[in-house]
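Sequence only, no structure available. Ideas?
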Amino acid sequence: MKTSTRLYAWLKFLTMLHIVEQLIFGMEDLHQFQHLLVGYQSRFGNTWPSIAASVTRAASLAALAIRGIAKGGFARFVTMFALGLPTIGEFHHVVETMRAGHYTPGAVTAVPSDICGLLFLRALVKELRPYKTIRVTAALTGLQEMVDLAGIEPATSSLRTMRSPS
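Reply:
I predicted one. Tokens follow.
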């Protein structure tokens, strides 16, 4: 199992803990979200079309995410990066706690969520790099084989001693 996959599972677990913490101690984010939702729904005039549009967008994004993860390579990287990026935004709970001078709901689970989110994004970047390295190494190996088959002696021995960065 890839490191990013394991860290993503931890992120989802921490997200559930974060929601439970906010349900127990109060959910200030919900009130802010409700104000945004009222503004969004007022554009439609009726709540049912706004809900249908929201569900359609969410289902489309979910289908794109599943396709990106299943495709692998750079598409997986972009999808997983987009899914992991919001966890870093949970740092606002720590800022709210420092500004208020006392505990605010969500601050306890925000710290491990931020740390895990940063580790997750770092693991994704590390997993993307080998794809580029493998292509370069394969090209150099193929070039070396062509030089050997042609019987050409390279001007320098750098092609023979070149190694892929590990």
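The CA atoms of residues 13 and 48 lie 32 Å apart.
Hope that gets you unstuck.
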